Amino acid sequence: MLQTHGLAFQYPGAMTIAFPNLDIAQGGALLLRGSSGSGKSTLLALTCGLLHPSSGSITVSGSQPQKLGQSQRDAWRGRTIGFLPQHLHLSHALTVFDNLALAYFAIGVATDKAQIMQNLEALDVAELSQRKP
User: Fold this and answer.
1) Is 86 within a domain?
2) pLDDT (0 to 100) of residue 85
């Protein structure tokens, strides 16, 4: 579930972006739509704890990411949210498989090799697992 109340964010030297209050049930959907610069990516970054709100609150699956320390927030994000940034930062020194395995390392759990392969197979790219990006 996702709830926001009085949520706003201000980039340095820019106007404050105020977001409407949200209350989305677990399993619900939200369509983010708007012109470039309207706050779509900012809202996503706020809800997954990559940015801190200037004001207001965010609750995702019972947690408030803005109240967690950086390492706690990173671990929470890895366990709770699937998030792909607009610009992927893949290591060109690692294979596709090893890049995906980094997510497990980031949250401090053992790599689930079977899950990684299952995901690659679901995307019909399993044959690329040992290639570099």
Assistant:
1) no
2) 65
